[in-house]
Structures are given as C-alpha cells and as structure tokens.
Records
---
Amino acid sequence: MTTPDAAARDQAPALDAHLVVDRDSFRLDAALRIAPGEVVALLGPNGAGKTTALRALAGLLPVSGGHVTVRGRRLDDAAARVFVPADKRSVGVVFQDYLLFPHLSALDNVAFGPRCQGASRAKSRAIAAEWLERVGLAEHAHAKPRRLSGGQAQRVALARALAVGPDLLLLDEPLSALDAGTRMDTRAHLHHHLADHPGGTLIVTHDPLDALILADRLVILEAGRVVQEGDAATITARPRTDYVARLVGLNLFRGRAVGDTVTLADGFTLTTSEPCDGPAFVAFPPTALALHPRRPEGSPRNVWAATVAGLQRHGDHLRVQLAGPLNTTADITPAAAAALRLETGSEVWAALKATETRVYPDGGDQDQAR
Ligand SMILES: Nc1ncnc2c1ncn2[C@@H]1O[C@H](COP(=O)(O)OP(=O)(O)OP(=O)(O)O)[C@@H](O)[C@H]1O
C-alpha cells in the first residue's frame, strides 16, 4: 500500500530549484523545474553558468541563496542552512569526461553506486551487470576504462549514474568528447535510455542538435539568468535574444512596429507582411536574403547595401556574414557566390521579401513559453 508520504513524493516535481550561486563577480540566479520523466536541456553561450548550475544541483558547489528540492526532498536551503552532501543526494551525474575510476573494471565502476547505497557486494555486482547489459556492454564488464572506446566509456558512465535509481540525472555535455560518427550512435542510444528514465533529466549542452533530439524542453541561460524556456517549436518560432536566434539559425532584430513597418533602434525600417503594433521582434532565416551585384528592380520591399564581412561553408551552401545598416547572415549557393564573385569586403545589395519575415510582439517576459 502507498503511504501518504510516498504518494506526495510521487506527485512532487523531480526538481524544483532556485539557484543563486556567487563566483567572484559572476552570479547565477536561475529557477529550474523538471517533471518526473521530463528531459530538459540547459543551453547557453560560454560562461553563461551552465556548469555552475549543474555542480550546484549535484552538491559539488554550495548555493548562496535559494533552494534545491529533488522529489520533495530539500537538498539545499541557503536560509535554513540545509546542505545535503553530494554522496547523500539521489542525483546521478555523467561528467563531460566521464570520470570513470581507472583502476576499476566497467562492472565495478557501475557497482560502486549501489555498494555506497548499502547493497551487498554480490547484489551491487548483479545490479551493475544488469545495467551493462541494458547499455549493450555486457561483454565488456571486466574491461578497465582505458580499454574502452569513447562511446563505450560514455555508456558505462551512463549506467553508473542510472544504477543508483536517481530521482534526478545530470549530464554535462554528454556527447562532446566523441567524434562525429560515434556521436550520432551514442545520441540515439542516450535518447532511448533517457526516454525510459522515470526521474527528471537535465542535460547541459552547447549543441542545439543534442538539445533538440534529446530534450522535451529547452532552458536558455545567458549571463547567469534564464532568458527563455519552452519547447523547441516555441523557441524556434519566437527567439528572444541574439544567442537564441543564432542557435536556431535566424536573423533577429528588435524594434517598434506600426502596422506592417518595424523601425529598428538605429532608424532602419523593415516592411513585414503581418501587421503588429508596439515593441516587436522581426526574424528571418538566412535563406530569405537574396544578394545582388546592383540594386534590384521590382518587388522586394526591403533592399539595402551591405558589405561581405565573412564567408564560410555551411553544409552544401555558403554562409555569408553581411555588415551594413543590418548585420545579417545570408545562405547562398556556391554557384550564386561565384556569379557574384563574393569575397570578404565585396559590396552587394541585399533584398528581403516582406513575406519571408516573421514579426511578433516583444512583450517582455510575460509571453515567455512556460
Ligand atoms: N572556480 C571558479 N571561481 C570563480 N569563478 C568561476 C569559477 N569557475 C567558473 N567561474 C565563473 O563562473 C561563470 C560561469 O561559468 P560556467 O563554467 O558555469 O559557465 P558555462 O555556461 O558552463 O560555460 P562553458 O560553456 O564555457 O563551460 C564564468 O564567468 C566563470 O568565469
């Protein structure tokens, strides 16, 4: 029979945290909530505070304010001076470089957690063997970490973190140490295991692809603050900062809309196809910009002179950085680049059809996806 306490724990979020951490002049001040079974990706530029957040949740860094509650259990509470040490938390961590014990076999690495939780040696090894089987490494149970490939070591680290049945699983850049081929396989493997994990999962990553494939929800951190959160579709449709726009591959500008005209901060105007009024964002993909050697005649409503500030290959097209009244990114075919004789410093005309733009109100935080 379920006790009232157990029932309350079952209903509690996997994570309910407000993290305030001071590190010299840097302050992390972020609220994070994860439902049981939910996978959340924490994304942000270098120095945004992602690792700081992960270390605080793991109990490796004390919070200076706020709280951390995992499945109803208070692990940190700065005001009440509560701090549960890392090894007493129901939190599993997969570190970026896995941190497997080099002198222990894969089996003993995985058995370590259950053993620390008080399981007998035989029971711990049985649990570990089961987990290695699940991650497809049964035949490598007796190998030492140095004999494992990067992908295999990652699976052992995942098995080790999951073997203790954590209420919260933390993954720090889980695929960044792998080469591209292994990364794809390991990502698919990880996806499968995260979908089965009944606790909450937080993945810290730089890589939007990992986030989009692995996570149910994205939380974007910049300079220690959550700037946007929501599912991938909402964030892609309505990025709220330059970083988020670049992440989803969009050009993004902020301005003031009156009908179908948006005036940007420096006075430049863009014509859009949907009317809007008041503070607004205008976004368009790099493929929406057409480049011409001379001022184009005809229909495009938005035309401006720009200078090529950089060129790089991006998949099967060229990504062109353009400076001018708008700093933008354009994607064009190599044939178009050759016809235009594009190189850094070239002068071109950029054209953008009003129908290729997306406009949406800049309502501060109140219309943020939740
Ligand atoms: N040991 C430390 N002492 C003082 N400040 C630190 C320490 N480690 C990190 N910081 C500062 O904390 C801030 C956040 O760093 P953090 O490593 O959490 O960011 P991040 O988002 O994980 O970045 P990255 O993606 O580069 O790993 C940075 O400004 C960094 O300089």
---
Amino acid sequence: MNSPNNRIRIFDTSLRDGEQSPGFTMSGAQKIAFAHALAELGVDVIEAGFPNSSPADYSAVQTIARDVRGASIAALARCHEGDIEACARALERAESPRIHVFISSSPLHRQYKLNMSREQVIEHAIMGVTLARKHVDDVEFSAEDAFRTERDFLVELFNAAVATGATTLNVPDTVGYATPDEIRELFRYLRANVQGADGVVFSAHCHNDLGLAVANSLAAIEGGARQVECTINGIGERAGNAALEELVMALKVRQGWYGVDTGITTPKLLDTSRLLSRITGIQVQRNKAIVGLNAFAHESGIHQHGMLKNRDTYEIMHPQDVGWPASQLVLGRHSGRAAVADRLRALGHVLDDAQLDLVIAQAKALTHTQHVVSDADLLRLVAGDHGDTGWRIASMSLIDEGQHTRAHVELSDPDGHRVKQDASGDGPIAALFAALAKAAGVDFELESYEVHSMGIGRDARGEANLSARIGGETFSGQGTSRDVLEASAIAWLEVANRLLRSYAMQRVPAFA
Ligand SMILES: CC(=O)SCCNC(=O)CCNC(=O)[C@H](O)C(C)(C)COP(=O)(O)OP(=O)(O)OC[C@H]1O[C@@H](n2cnc3c(N)ncnc32)[C@H](O)[C@@H]1OP(=O)(O)O
Ligand SMILES: CC(C)C(=O)C(=O)O
C-alpha cells in the first residue's frame, strides 16, 4: 500500500458522537471514568464532548481535560463563536487540547439546515478555524456530510481550512451512505487535490447505516486517511459509528495487508467494552465481533472437533489478544462426540463408546429445555442422576414500598420441603433476586441478565436469560412466563440449581 506513514491515529468519540445517541447518555462521573479507561487503552484522541451543549457536558469536558493524561482531549464546536469559546475554556487545563470545528458542506445540508450559500459556508469555516487557532495549535476541521458534497466544493472548503490553520481534515460519511470503493477513491482524490495536503492529517468518520462503517474506515485508510474516528462497541448516532475494537483488530490481524499500526493495547479491549456496557446499561449482542459473548465460543460439533485439533481452523486471532481468558467450547444441541469426550476427560471421566453415546443422547435431550449443557449437567448425567432436583417457585409476590420494593418468595424442593423468605431492593428485580438468594441459600454475581418479550396479544410471554461466571465456569438459566418477573425468578433459580448440583457433583467420583 502506498501510504505517507504507517501509524493510524485512533480518535475515540464514544463520549461525544456515542453519547449523543438515544439510550447512551452518561453522567459526568461515568464520562470521566470512561475517559481514563480510553487513555489506558491507548487511544490517541478522546473527543470528550460538546461543551456548549449543556453545563453538564461543559463540566465533564473540563474535568477530563484537567485529569486525563496520555491522550489529546478534543471538544466539538459548530463554526459559532460561543461554541468555540466554550471549547477553549473547557480545554484550558488539557495537556494536549484539540478544538474540533465543523460545518455542513453538502448541498442538502447547505440548503435545508444552514440556509447558506457555498461562499457563506466557506466564510463560517474560515471564522471557525481562525478563532479555534487563536486558542490552540491543534485544530480539526470537519465538513459534515462530506461524502455527499460536490468534490470541487469540498476541495475549496478544505483548502480554506488548511490555509487558516486546520491541522486535521475530517471527511465524515455522516449518514453512512458510502461504499468502500467510493470512499477509498474520495480520499485519494482529496489527498491529490487539497493544497497543503501533505502537511495535514486526513481523517475518516464513518457511520454504520448500511453496516459498512468499519469497511469504509479501512478503505479510507487505503486511500490515505491516517486518523479514524470510532467508538467502543460502535455506539453513535442511529446505527452507530465504526466500532473501535473491530477496526483496530482488523488492522492488527491483517497487518500484512494494510501495513499500518495503532497504539492500542488490544488486551484491554474487552474490559473497555464491558465498562461501557456497565455504564450505559446496554449490552452488546452475543455475536458482536471481538467483544460479544460468542466471539470466541464454539458450539457446533464440526467446529469443536476442528478446534480441538488446531484452533486456527476456526479462529483468526487469539482470544487473549483482545482480553478474553480463553476460547470456549460450549456444549449444546449441536455438539458432537469429540467435544463431549474432551470435556468429560477434563472433568476426570474417560467413558467407553456406549457410555459416551448415552451421555450425549441425554445431554442433547436436556437442550430441549436449556440452551447449553454445563459441566454440572454433564457430571450429573455421568453420575446417572436425571432427576428433576432443585428448588422450584411455590409462590412469589412484590410490594411497592415507595423508595423500595419488598419481595416475598416461597420455594419448594422435590421432597416437599418449603422455605419462605423476603427481602427488599431498589426495584422489583433487585428485591426478587435478594429474596431468592436468601431462600435458596445461594448467592452469585450475574454476568448478564436480559429480558425480552415473545409473541403478541394472548400468546405474549416474557423470556429471561441469566448467566453467572463462577470458578471459571458459566452457569446460565432461562425462564419463560406470562409475567416477566416470574420468568426472571425461574431463570435465577435455574442458575442456582445448576450451581448447587455442581457443588454436589464435585463429590461424585465415577460413572454410575
Ligand atoms: C453530525 C453531528 O454529530 S453534529 C453534532 C451533533 N451534536 C449536537 O447537536 C450536540 C447537542 N446539541 C445541542 O445541545 C443543541 O443543538 C445546541 C446547543 C448545539 C444548539 O441548540 P439551539 O441553539 O437550540 O439550536 P438547534 O439545535 O435547534 O439548531 C441548530 C442550529 O445550529 C446551526 N448549525 C448547525 N450546524 C452548524 C455548524 N456546524 N456551524 C454553524 N451553525 C450550525 C443550525 O443551522 C441551527 O441554527 P438556527 O438555530 O439559526 O436555525
Ligand atoms: C461532527 C461530525 C464529525 C460528525 O459527527 C458527523 O458528520 O457524523
């Protein structure tokens, strides 16, 4: 690849473009904690917010600028005096401040949003960059909706920005309309035609409306971009921005093709992604590249068999390189002999063919009612225990006590023993889980908890899925009911029962 240099700057905008999208609003303290995590991850620029949009955003940018070291801190402004002055004040104590000014350039935005002519847009850009340069040396200029802008005008606008002192030229595909070939070509064109192109950094800012944000960012790099704007977990306006973890790992895994490096400490990717999920309360989907629960998990027999022979058959990177402790061979409906035998061997059981066939058949039968077969399930089957053991819900009720909720539960076991307990919590789920923990005498920290509805009208049901990771093993449970609270209680008890069986099974020595 013919490129000016081989270091790609990672500009993280989780705290600005990410935070400005529905569902991702963060408190000041959360933003500051996340900015520290981004600096530790090794991003080059943290876009901390839009100071003139609210006092809360101003104060978060100001604290991040004062406290976070090791990355440039950027703040966003329209080509508007008040916005730029607010950025300058908020960034006063930053070690390496950047003011990022933007104005729309496409005909659609000029006519409908700004009601400005080409000349007026250029005048505003000159005003914005000039004012920003009075405060800081590092000024980024963005032509919003650049991808849908006439090329001659885009070059004219960027020429004006460079002449007035912009040091980074950002080319946003604001509405995620580009395709990789087009964006690669656009960057080549701009680098060839903007005056002073060699003295500035070209940057790509791709949105994911067509699911192409990462592919387009990679193509922009091939076209000469040396900064990419992205967010952890791909959060951002509408379908989001390019996902940092995907972009960085694509550049790392395919270094031979792209020939470029980033400064990211990739083993911190998973923790950073999880921190963001904890802060926003929004989990990534299981099959999300790099950081989803399935990213290094294999359930189907053919893949598991291949993995056991040589992990490169089904994995293109080491899980440890992005922060996972190891790959996982998850036993489920699609698993085969190789994986079941291997897991049993690891648990200390070498079965003959007939015994293995029996356990596999019984394990597959379990998957009619559960997604995965845990070590505890396997050990139970090996011990010949197929019974319906464990706690069941006899009754439950919740009382709203104003600030708190109180849950009453009654559990029964197959021998008819009953136990009643109650507990209070900040909300119904916290109260319910606390009461269940007291009644079953089991407590665990949830790794994930999701509830969604299935069906509509009279058939509508809630499905709850929980998982907890204990002693290196994942225990998961699922519950369905017309009532989502009851579905959650059933799922919680399934995890608790598995955990109890696993403790019991650790004492079972051999195939019964
Ligand atoms: C593609 C992006 O991600 S752009 C960044 C998006 N981020 C945000 O919007 C941050 C949060 N926004 C806010 O808090 C508010 O919108 C504010 C404080 C910025 C502005 O609020 P208001 O003054 O009430 O204006 P409002 O949001 O209704 O409209 C935006 C105004 O900015 C103008 N404008 C938009 N972009 C620019 C720009 N780059 N340069 C100059 N003016 C601009 C619009 O033409 C409109 O002007 P008008 O009020 O004269 O019609
Ligand atoms: C302000 C710019 C960089 C932006 O967020 C966009 O165009 O999507």
---
Amino acid sequence: MTVLKERIKENSFSVVRNENWTKPIYETNGLNLWYGTSHALKNIELSINEREVTAIIGPSGCGKSTFLKTLNRMVETAADVTISGNVTFKGNNILGKSMPVEILRSKVGMVFQKPNPFPKSIFENVAYGPKVHGIRNKAMLEMIVEESLKKAALWDEVKDRLHKSAYSLSGGQQQRLCIARCLAIDPEVILMDEPTSALDPVSTHKIEELIRSIKNDVTIAIVTHNMQQAARISDRTAFFLNGEIIEHNQTSTIFNNPADPLTDDYVNGRFG
Ligand SMILES: Nc1ncnc2c1ncn2[C@@H]1O[C@H](COP(=O)(O)OP(=O)(O)OP(=O)(O)O)[C@@H](O)[C@H]1O
C-alpha cells in the first residue's frame, strides 16, 4: 500500500494534521441535526479513538445511522436537513468548508447493511478506488487488489475467479468484498452500518474476525443491534436513545457496570 499512500500524498489527498490532534480521530461537540422539524441528534459529544472499534448501539430510530452518516457527510444529501455544532476529523472541522468531501471520503470508507458491490468484476470492484486516485499501472493494481482481498479474508475464495461478476458471490462474500473495496484506498476509518445484520452466523463470524484483524490499522465505528457482537468486537460503546447519548464508555463497563439504569436495561434486553 506504500505506493498508494505516496500517490495520495502526491495528489494532495492527505489531511493536514491539526497541532491539537492527539488520540481521538473524530470528535463531535454540540452536534445537533434536524430532519425538517424532527430533532434526530441532540447535543452529541463523542470521541472516537484512533485504532479502536467503537460500537454504536440503541433502539430503532434513536439516531445511530444518522450519526454514522454525519461522520462522512452523507446525511446532508437528505432533503431539509439542518446541522449545528462541530464534527472534527483529526482536528479539522468537516462541517466547515475547510475539508472538501472527496478528501474526507478518501480517508473514510463506509460499509452498509446490504452489501452493495458495483456491477463489475471482483477485481474491478477493488481496483476502482485506486484507479480513481490515479493508479493505472497493472502490476500495481494487481498488488493492491490481492493485498486488500487478503486483508478482507476473501482472497483464497476468489483468487481463481477475479474476473467474474461480484454478483456471483454469496452475501457474506459480497460484504467482505465491500470491505476489501474500502481497504484498497488505505482508509484511516471505516464506518459500518449494521454490516452483518443480513448475514448468516458463519458469515457474521468471518466479518467479526476481519474487524479484529484490521483494527490495528484502521479505526472502526460500527452500528449494531447485536449486543453480543458489540461486546465481542468493540473497545468502546456509545448508547444512543431518542437522539441523545446516554452513556459512552469502555465496552466492558457499558455491559458489566453501566452508570445509567437505562443503559443497564437496554444491554440486558429489558427494552428496545
Ligand atoms: N432521510 C430522513 N428524513 C427524515 N427523517 C429521517 C431520515 N432518516 C432518518 N430519519 C428519522 O430520524 C430518526 C433517526 O433515524 P436513524 O435512521 O438515524 O435511526 P437508527 O437508530 O439508525 O434506526 P435503525 O436502528 O432502525 O436503523 C428516526 O426518527 C428516523 O425516522
């Protein structure tokens, strides 16, 4: 990936590090978001630490996906959205004009609930991002594709059919392909919105293993309804309710010794 890193640097895609930036890669301060008059995020104060897995949990409609999408500025595309407050990525406010969205998204990948490969071959899905960043050399692209598929624990299953359609893969394989597609641009963060909720237990296990194996290189924020999954894979957990953060702490504390009775009730399945 060094070549890609160099190329991204050459093309000035790198985000300038703010002097005040230390460990949190993302911080939100006083973040509020409205869909029309509906107040979906209320005064969110949350740090997402670098090279950790942060789980975002809470009942349906509490604002988890909205929050996640705010982190790569996807929510602004919805009609009638108003945002106030700050969301900083490495100390730079992404809601201001200082960071173009394409620069942010070259650093922050997103994986959705339903796998969404492009209608292209397995190879072309993974090579797409590097090509957009100007890499044309065939050998270099092949190297990036192989490395990304290996990191996504998919290489052995697809190495003999790289030029077959991505749609020929199973749902679980397609989701790992989407993660490989993110990894191919060497992101700093991957945002995952219920990435295993449409998958069987074996595929879910593979994705969880994959998350564990990449977390030393990539920061991950994951929305999940699966409490066991949050407990298994995350370092920190944020519990959302009605658009507010009720509690954010180390995952072991949230599950074993939460400060708020609402958190206790939720993680123990008494509501939601
Ligand atoms: N595009 C939109 N336009 C208007 N309201 C929206 C839009 N997207 C979400 N909402 C509303 O904002 C609130 C938060 O929705 P969001 O999808 O963020 O919740 P969630 O916690 O991710 O829910 P789920 O677990 O069901 O996916 C809900 O009341 C939802 O109806």
